[in-house]
Design brief:
This protein is 82% helix and 0% strand. It has 114 residues and is mainly α. It has one domain. The radius of gyration is 14 Å and the shape is elongated. Helix 1 runs antiparallel to helix 2. Bound molecules: protoporphyrin IX containing FE (HEM). The site of protoporphyrin IX containing FE has 22 residues, from helix 1, helix 2, helix 3 and helix 4.
């Protein structure tokens, strides 16, 4: 169980790297597959981590998790809408910047909310 949790923490961190790497450092303003799939992965791996921690002995801060889920839904919404608009030739860099910024915000929530 502990190994599984560690595997999902690694996937969770790779999802973070995909979003912030793409939106903030590499393809600024352009919605890449890494951004969209990273945003989806954060919700999936985050919820699985909550389940694994609940199933084990690790306490879960439900308020913190609720805040992270809301912010992550915002990241995913921005990424999906930006990708949809890009496909229709109506690219909107602001949505990509918002997705990257919200992911950084969620990183701060994850690390600083103790
Ligand atoms: C853009 C979205 C997200 C980002 C950037 C993010 C970032 C992070 C980071 C950096 C950590 C490691 C913190 C540490 O170990 O000190 C973490 C851990 C965690 N995150 Fe997220 N997260 C996101 C979304 C979510 C969501 C949606 C959930 C659940 C609904 C979630 C649940 C968790 C849990 C339970 C842990 C603790 C894992 C453990 O140590 O067992 N995260 N997150």
């Amino acid at each position: 169980m502990e190994l599984l949790t560690h595997v999902f923490v690694v996937l969770h961190l790779l999802g973070l790297a995909a979003i912030v790497g793409s939106a903030v450092f590499v393809a600024r303003g352009v919605p890449t597959p890494a951004l969209v799939w990273g945003a989806r992965a954060q919700i999936l791996t985050g919820l699985l981590l909550v389940g694994l921690n609940e199933a084990g002995d690790d306490p879960v801060n439900h308020t913190k998790v609720a805040v992270k889920l809301l912010v992550a839904l915002g990241v995913a919404a921005c990424a999906e809408i930006a990708a949809g608009r890009e496909r229709r030739g109506e690219g909107n860099p602001n949505l990509v910047h918002a997705a990257g910024g919200l992911a950084v915000l969620n990183t701060l929530v994850a690390v600083l909310w103790t």
